[in-house]
Amino acid sequence: MTKSEFRYAHHPEDVKKYTTEELREHFLIPELFVKNQISLTYTMYDRYIAGGAFPVDQALKLETIDELKSENFLDRRELGVINVGGKGKVTVDGEVYEIGHREAIYIGRGTKEVIFEATGEQPYFYINSAPAHTSYPTKKVTKAEAEVVELGDTKTSNKRVINKLLVNSVIDTCQLQMGMTELQEGCVWNTMPPHTHERRMEVYFYFDLEEGQTISHFMGQPQETRHIFMKNHQAVISPEWSIHAGAGTSNYTFIWGMAGENLDYGDMDGVTPDELK
Questions:
Q1: pLDDT at 214
Q2: Are 96 and 88 in contact (CB under 8 A)?
Q3: What is the pLDDT of residue 268?
Q4: 226-235 burial by CB neighbour count: b if 16+ within 10 A, else e?
Q5: Which residues lie closer than 8 Å to 155 by C-beta, 6 or more apart?
Q6: Are 263 and 174 in contact (CB under 8 A)?
């Protein structure tokens, strides 16, 4: 079963006036993993889709959704998947890929059939998708194959390891890019100092958060910030005009996915912490 919901894009001047409830309604994706279901959120920010496939005791086929007006989900799209649970398998047009914990798979435009299954363990398949102008081969990417960057410092509580999994320095993609950032012990800040990038939007998905703990995700224009408190296995939409940073009450990991005008990972408009309002 594949279910989807739709989100409009928003003007930053309007977002300034949103209540807490309205902010959460428009930007938070609260439930990604529903038993034996593929749950998707289609956003008008670069027509990005984020969601989760949670096969417990059934195989789940990725079905097209009304917003796409296409026979198959990937007729005009590319797909990225990162498994944040136990080992599972993804079958792509009949070819089986075993996808372990924190492993990824890229699936190119024109693929007819994608099926998600558990293989004795419980996988949590986190999904991102963006429109694609051409087709690139399906490819599995392990964590060992990722481009790894270490940033931050324990002094500023933001020492972290960035694992670039589905990016153009590792595989060919049209515009989709995905990676995973791991906070080091005692560090709680991500993407700090923050930045915006007018040429790309992002979605952040938080996981590995201990029960009873929370993450405060900061968004909004640098001079007009807002925050959303988040739980484990929740995602948040980040517009191109918004910062995207967070601080947790304990360690956590998050997956960033993005699409837009270019594939330049370093294309960022930086903001120093003392400029934030």
A1: 97
A2: no
A3: 83
A4: bbbebeebbb
A5: none
A6: no
Task: From residue 91, give the alpha-carbon distance in Å to each of 39, 40, 103, 172.
Answer: 18, 19, 15, 20
- What whole-number distance in Å separates Cα of residue 105 and Cα of residue 8? 28
Binding residues for Zn(2+): 195, 197, 202, 244
Residues in the chain: 277
Tokens 């370093």: give the residue.
Answer: 266
Give residue-wise pLDDT tens across range 144-167: 999 999 999 999 999 999 999 999
Domain ranges of the chain: 2-275
Query: Can you give the pTM of this predicted structure?
Result: 0.96
185 bridge partner residues: none
The stretches in the chain having pLDDT less than 50 are: none
Residue 155 corresponds to which amino acid?
Answer: K
Quickly tell me which residue has 């304990």 as its tokens.
250
Return binding residues. 195, 197, 202, 244
CA distance 110 to 256: 24
Fold of 2-275: Jelly Rolls (2.60.120)
